[in-house]
Fold acid phosphatase.
Amino acid sequence: MQLFQLLVLMCFACIFIQANSDISKFPSLISVQVIVRHGDREPDEDFRNPLGELTNNGKKRMYDFGIFLRGKYGKFLNYITSSKSVSILSSDTGRTIESGLLIGLGLSEVTVQKSKFDEGNLYVPFPVRTIPAEIDDFIKTSRICPRFQKLLDESIENYVNDFVERNRRYFTKFAPATGHWIILNKTANSDKINFFVFYQEQAIYNATMGSPLDEVALEAVVNPDLAFKPGYDALRVDSVEKQRLYLGPLFRQLTNTFLAEDKKKLNIYSAHDRVMYTFMLTLGVWQDPKETPPYGSALSVELHETFSGETYLEWWYKNDTGSYLLEIPGCGKPCFFSQFIYQFDQIISGDNDIECQLL
Ligand SMILES: *[C@@H]1O[C@H](CO)[C@@H](O)[C@H](O)[C@H]1NC(C)=O
Ligand SMILES: *[C@@H]1O[C@H](CO)[C@@H](O)[C@H](O)[C@H]1NC(C)=O
Ligand SMILES: *[C@@H]1O[C@H](CO)[C@@H](O)[C@H](O)[C@H]1NC(C)=O
C-alpha cells in the first residue's frame, strides 16, 4: 500500500473514532439507578394517619426532575422511554406514587407529545409500579423486622431523653403553651416526643407557606439544637447489625439490579428521605449533621464499564444547589463494583428472613 493511501485510511479511522465518541456522551454507561425523595408535601394529619399530599410546588419539582433526567440521560436512552428500558418503582404512599408519575411525565414529554398526535389526544402515562407497605423492605422500609425494632427501641429511649434534657429551657415553655406536659416527664416512654415532632413539622410547613408563627413554633423552626430528625433517623444505622437489618435489602436490590443480565437502562425509586439519608450515612457520604435530604433530592448510582471490561460505580447527589459527584470512602477512584460489593459485604450478605426473627 502506498504511504499516501495508508495515511488517508488512518485519517478516516481517526475521524471515525472521533465521531463515534461524540455520538454518545456516555460511551461506557451501562445502567443507572436513582433514589429520589418525593416532592414538597403538606404536613401529616397525625402519626397514625400520614396523608401529607404533594403541594403544587412539590408537583412541579418532580416534573422538573423528570426533565432533568431527560437532559442527563436522554441520549443514553436514545430518547426512548418505554418500560423496556426504564422502570419507576414507588413506595405505596400517595406522595411517592404521584411523584413517580410526574417524573415519568417530565422524562417522556416528547414521546407523549408525539403519541398525542398519533393516537388522537390520548394521554400516555408512564407506568409506576409499587410495593405494598407490608412487604416493602427497601423503598419505604416499612416491612416489620422484630429484631431491628428491638434494637431501635433500645436506642430511641436514650436519644429522646437526652434531646429533651439538652433543650429543657425550650420544653419548659413548650409544655404550658401546648398543654403537652408529658414531654417533661422523665419516666414516660419515648412516644412523648411524637407531639413535638408533629408540631415542628407543622411549624416548618407554616413558615414555608408564610403563615404567622407563635413564639414556641418559631423557635422550633429556627433553633438548630431542636433539629430532632437527623439524630433520630441516624439511630437506625449506628451499628453494622442495624445497617444490615435496615438497609441490607436496599443494598441487595441495587447490586442485583446491576448484576442482572437483562437490566434496564434507568431504574427510578420514588422514595422517602429516611431511607436516602440512612443509606448515605452508611455509605459515608452524608454531609450535614443537622439536615436530612430535602424534597426532590436524589442519589444516583451509575454503572460504567472500562475499556478492559471492568465495571465501576459513579455516585451522584442532587439537591437545589447542584449535582455533586460523591466519593465513597474506602472504595477508591474509580470505585470498582467488585470493591463496593466486597466493602459492604457484611451488609449485603445478610438474610433478613432469618435475622429479623432472632430476638
Ligand atoms: C410520668 O410517666 C409515668 C409513666 O407513664 C407515670 O407513671 C407518672 O405518673 C408520670 N408522672 C407525672 C408527674 O405525670
Ligand atoms: C399552622 O397553621 C395552621 C393553620 O393556619 C394552624 O392551625 C396550626 O396551629 C399552625 N401550627 C403551628 C405549629 O404553627
Ligand atoms: C447540596 O449538597 C451539597 C453537597 O452535599 C452541599 O454542599 C450543599 O450545601 C447542599 N445545598 C443545600 C441548599 O443544602
Observations:
- The pocket of 2-acetamido-2-deoxy-beta-D-glucopyranose (ligand 1) is lined by residues 185, 187-188 (CB under 6 Å).
- Residues 6-26 have pLDDT under 50 and may be disordered.
